[in-house]
Design brief:
This protein has 226 residues and is an alpha/beta fold. It has a 6-stranded mixed beta sheet. The longest helix is centred in the middle third of the chain and has 19 residues. The radius of gyration is 18 Å and the shape is globular.
């Protein structure tokens, strides 16, 4: 497997960081492309094991760090700080990456895999940029919006109004992730829910770009746009 990283500039003035993984056999034998949209409070680098499996099967893989995540954030202290327009911008950046992939691999089908927050972005991507991809896969996605999401949306708006958009909200973080560990006994770490593989949980905890408490503005915008 060949690994590379690169960046691209966006119309809104951002610099987006991208990981790329390609099979050793070269483009002539490609089965297609898988573009990955990662989840909240993690980075695209976490998908390298999946990329290995996919490249072994003949697929090239690309994944960008979203706004306020990983290397796109620029530094650890900027992780989780987002503008009000962040949700749509992240989906637009994904579409821009798809265009770059198409230029690199003309004629190859592109499949978009979105996990958790990335699955919500994938849904928005399909609405904003129809026809760009050959298929989409949603992992850990949402169903119909329920009453609790509506309550969470109101709390997020109140928190943002009271404390400012860039305040890191322990309350909203607890409401979002606080119950995830309830089915795990005994609890080894606060992130046991993340994976059944303890090594992956430990790698996540050890990565300073993973597990951040996000700002109130992110929760307010994200809950409205779901």
């Amino acid at each position: 497997m060949h690994k590379e990283t690169f960046t691209f500039g966006t119309p809104d003035g951002q610099t987006v960081f991208v990981y790329g993984w390609r099979p050793a056999l070269g483009d002539s034998k490609l089965q297609g492309i898988v573009q990955i949209a990662h989840g909240m409070a993690e980075t695209a680098a976490r998908y390298e094991r999946l990329a290995q499996r996919l490249t072994d099967a003949g697929f090239a893989v690309y994944a960008n760090d979203h706004l306020a995540h990983g290397q796109t954030a620029g530094s650890v202290n900027k992780v989780g700080i987002m503008k009000q327009t962040a949700f749509n911008l992240m989906a637009e950046h994904m579409a821009q990456l798809t265009d770059l992939i198409a230029e690199r691999h003309p004629g190859s089908p592109v499949f978009l895999l979105g996990h958790s927050m990335g699955s919500f972005l994938t849904q928005r991507y399909m609405y904003l940029s129809p026809g760009k991809i050959s298929g989409a896969l949603l992992s850990g996605s949402n169903g119909p919006q329920g009453f609790m999401l509506k309550i969470g949306r109101q709390i997020a708006k109140l928190e943002a109004g009271r404390r400012g958009d860039e305040c890191r909200s322990l309350l909203l973080n607890a409401l979002t992730f606080g119950r995830y560990n309830r089915y795990f006994k005994p609890i080894r770490t606060p992130f046991d829910w993340l994976s059944r593989d303890p090594a992956e949980v430990d790698k996540y905890i050890a990565d300073p770009y993973c597990g951040a408490v996000f700002c109130t503005g992110f929760f307010a915008v994200f809950s409205v746009d779901l």
